Amino acid sequence: MRNFIISFLALILLPAYMTGQEIKGKVLDPTGLGIPGAFVVAGNASAETDIDGNFSIKAKEGDILKISLVGFEAVSIPATLTAMTVTLKESEDTALKEVVVIGYGSAKKRDLTGSIVKVQAKEIADKPNPNPIVSVQGKVAGLSIVNSGKPGEDPDVRIRGTVSRYQTKPLYVVDGIFADDIKFMNASDIESMEVLKDASSLAIFGVRGANGVIIVTSKKAKEGKSTVNFNSSVGFKTLVDIPSLTNGAQFKALYDEQRANQGLAPYAHYDKFNADTDWIEEISNDNALVITNNLSFSNGTDKNKFYFGLGHVEDDGLIENEKYKKFTFNVNNQTQITESIKIGVSMNGYNSSLPQLRNFESSLRATPIVSPINANGMYNQLPLEIGAAQIGNPLAEVEAKRFTQLNEESKYIINAFAEIEIIDGLKFKGSYQTETSYSKGRGYTPVFDVYVSETDEVTQYGGNTLTNVNQFKNDFNKKQQDYNFTYNKDFGNHDFTLLAGYTRLEENFEGVSGTVSQYVGGEQIPNNKRWWYLNVYPYGDPTTRFASSDQWDRSTVSYLARLLYNYDGKYIINGSFRRDGSSELSESNRWQNFWSLGAAWEITKEDFMQDQKFFDLLKIKGSYGILGNQYSSIHYPAYPAYTTGSSAVFGESIVPAYVLAYRNNPDLQWETVTSYEGGIEMKLFESRMNFEFAYFNKTTKDLLTFVDLGSEKFYTNAGEIENQGFEFSASWNDDINENFSYSISGNATTLKNEVISVYEPGFQVFEGPSILTAGAPIGSFYGYVVEGLYQSYADILASPPSSLGDYAPGDFKYSDINGDGKITTDDRTIIGNPTPDVSYGFSLSATYKHVTLSFDFQGVYGNEIYRDWGNGSTFAVFNYRTERLDRWAGAGTSNWEPRLNDGSGYNKLPSTYMIEDGSYLRLRNIQLAYDFDKEFLDKTFLQSLRIYLNAQNPFTWAYNSGFTPEAGGTPISFGKDTGGYPLPAITSFGLNLTF
């Protein structure tokens, strides 16, 4: 590591200056990104810009350089000996001719009416995020990404709100194949991501389109180029925003006061428990690293394009003994056999070693007065009266059980296609994609001793007296076939593209798992991974062996069509249709239709706009359509399985009876989402400013709901959820002179979510403190409103009586919400909304000569967090938040922190006491980068070299008391802060070189 840092600093200090023998510079587009492939000519000399837009050419100062590229206006500029920066202006219509990837093909942006945001490779590749989607956080309006600090764990991703109670994540389409995530991708292998948000873009995906779609395009070789690229970074993790907990002395004072409030004597064993332990520090990994290494090779000719990439990631957790390892490869080869026939094959591979993840919950709860280890080197048990029954020694969990769970995950995706141009403008493309993935693991539960200080005894940790082994294996396979005809034709002022296709998707899953324990009184199963199998002979007791399995398969057959039409570049119409048939529904209701219609008008193409100079582009657009959502809590909801029911006696035999798990409903269908939007796109001030605005509305109907009435259970289509809001995005890019340029960009999204209905009036679904109920946002927090604390018995007598339990001065004073003059369960109400009112992000970037400094910010406003730790929600005695030092200790001492009395359940009811403001602003990323000049590189074997210093999540401005204000979860239970895992700050050093 020291050698790496020394080398890194040496590179920064290397001189980079002109010798006068070469003219060098950089060619940028209007957004400030380098333009590859631009031609630079000076007399008889010529050059071409590299992938970052850099060029070097033999010329003299004052010679005229001519710079050109298709789609941009050519420029002529005198050569200078200082580094030149040239910005090319897009030629007329170039912005609208930009090609974006859409479902089952690509299209010019000018021909689209929907909301599609393209994220370039540069936004993804140089961030220390093992999962590439994390790097997009805050970059796209309407895209919500809630991170987890746990290595290898997926973030919570939602596009334009929560539309269903069973699924939130969007569909990922990686080079044409459907995927549930992209953690198997190497960020350096990604060319771009397209985020599809509106009906016009999504209807072509049918039953998978309701949650939005993210299309990922992997890199391919560029024609006429052979390159080898290597990029590497090393990041150092830091634990930040640590919750404030009481120390040993403070804990003793509060605990004895609590005992006094309960009528108990002071704690009698402080002579045995007199430590001052910081349990968070005890289990934290102070040397956590994130290491990434990526190598790629590409070679392109007019007939063949080949790309090969390798990636390696090692990501340490913030808790000791956590390490995530990820290996990826990507192979892509395309061959132009004839002018009309092209074939290609690609393969993505992924293998990961998953960490044995834990969390910080126990370290937040464990009392600080216990030493982790006693004088004899044995782990101490927590005090019998202070959490021993609920919490194990946090250090013992981390150290004594380290590396006792070995899990790994692999995925391989193959895509083969053939494309034939039948006649001019008419192409047929057939593709076959297959995915094979598996996860497997085996683990071990050790038995070891801990010391019980109160009784001076040794006992088994957690009361576990038998070692045991677990083992599992899951296999998932997917086969996808696409057959599409695409016809593109323009005549006169008319331009249209027609798509018609057929696709089939087959998926199947098989999983088995089991456990086995040692013989009672027998020898322990060895703590050695070579023995961690279910048939561990001779240690495993066969009578304790238990195994279970799970399996399912399903298929979907679809027909699809799309029309993209524009007249004279002014009037644009998009139409999509898809008919999906699913094996998971009954035959009578198997097929469903989905469609969309969009229109746009580019006003700046009209004659009456030709003399104005304000707008470079002004386009209004709108779309309407029906999308689908096929997710449910189980597979084949229309075909209930059997479960054990009442038994019957026949003679001397007891025969179990089997009944349906729930009532069959052959009329079930997938949820439908009615989606519409309207918006504008603008470019102003010679395209230096870009602005987009949209209003959207997504209403889920026929909500797939499981109804449990006790005596009767069934699935039905009933219920409605609405999401609506506004999206804004803007950017400004400018070149002050040839040496200095800058850019500013930002986006904001407002979102209002409301459950319109759920089955029948009054029907509600609970998940912890979260509720699904009509008239409130999905996943709202439900409980009592705290007005303050009872200050005296006179205060109690003057207040509405409560039937919620025994209470006294210093306890919560709950609000009489329904005004009936008493406090009952009917006074529960909505006490918080986990969905932000506004989500936003903005970025700043400035480049001076070869140095670039950039900042990325992201935040949310108007949401609440449910604090599910340190709030006395259990009867066990845990450590206290330091806020509890301000507890009520007599009339007037506090009107918010209740008296210390964990023996009472009155203050443990879900209430606004647990609610915290979830708004925050986070500095997501700071990067300082240096691009070495072309002349210096010409003396080496390198085409380009970039070095950078990156700081991720260094500062957060928030109001919560936990590690992080970000908290994902399920569709109807999210925004709960369990105190489990922080989001680290990461400082990384990196380099990217091409040769």
From TrEMBL:
Q: Where in the cell is it found?
A: Cell outer membrane
Keyword Transport appears in the UniProt entry: yes
Keyword annotations from UniProtKB, A to Z? Cell outer membrane, Ion transport, Iron, Iron transport, Membrane, TonB box, Transmembrane, Transmembrane beta strand, Transport
Which ranges carry the TonB-dependent receptor plug domain?
A: 108-213
The membrane-topology field of this record reads: Multi-pass membrane protein
Q: Which Gene3D superfamilies match?
A: TonB-dependent receptor, beta-barrel domain, TonB-dependent receptor, plug domain
Pfam families named in the record: CarbopepD_reg_2, Plug
**InterPro entries according to UniProt:** Beta-barrel_TonB_sf, CarboxyPept-like_regulatory, Plug_dom, Plug_dom_sf, TonB-dep_OMP_SusC/RagA, TonB-dep_OMP_SusC/RagA_CS, TonB-dep_rcpt-like
Per the annotation, which location comes first and is thus the protein's main one?
A: membrane
Q: Which family does it belong to?
A: Belongs to the TonB-dependent receptor family.
Its name, as the record gives it, is TonB-linked SusC/RagA family outer membrane protein
Origin organism of this chain? Answer: Flavobacterium granuli
